[in-house]
Amino acid sequence: MSTLGMPGIPVREAARTARAHGCTGLELRVHPDEEVHLGLSGPATDAVRSLLDSENLAISCLAGYAKVAAPGADRPVVDELKALIALAQRIGAAQIRVFPGGDGDARPRIAAVLDELRDAGVRLLVETHDSHPTGAAARSLVDGFGEPDLAAVLWDAVHPWRAGENPAVTTEVLGPYLGYFQVKDVRSRETPTPVPPGEGAVPLDDCGALLRSWSGWVSLEWEKAWYPGLAPVDVPLRAAAAWFDRYVTPSG
């Protein structure tokens, strides 16, 4: 599960919630409002890693906010990516999530951190989001490197579907570049208010059937940080667990 569903809550409490619902990993939002953020001290980073180790929880992903295709200078984006990679390496996360963020050229920015990714044993995941909401669009930012173990795509269940891309097409176009799946649901294409998985319009049954033989991380994203009136994360976690049981061997 993602800590986006528990905004401002200490990692210790988020870990207890994750374990109570049978999760084996935790997706940590990296944000100034959260316990885990860029600039977190070394000892504090080590303490989070030790805590999650003691709870027998892996860190499935660090959900960062770097925008690899944002307009503007390369250096600030590259510096943010390097900071995310360094944090991931120290905290024990194998993956970092980033956004597209615009129509700029992502290639030189990603190329600039490939060695850091390789040395740290960390994979960069570009989310299907904002300027590149479909699987095809998101893959276009990373497939030129030909190294899906280093640069791949995070499939957010909502955005490709809202953009008109069928889940079967998303799965096909991502191929080996599918690195992570966020299960989530919304009321409709026109009303993207989150609802517990299975209660909305996103074709999650189709997604589940397509992912049945896939072995990557699956994480619930519950956008309570953006919709504070949503139910506590326990509610969608129960629905997500039922979906996992039907389709996916749970991994997060």
From TrEMBL:
Signal peptide: none annotated. InterPro entries: IolE/XylAMocC-like, Xyl_isomerase-like_sf, Xyl_isomerase-like_TIM-brl. Residues 17-245 form the Xylose isomerase-like TIM barrel domain. Keywords: Isomerase. Pfam families: AP_endonuc_2. It comes from the Bacteria. GO terms for molecular function: isomerase activity. This is Xylose isomerase.
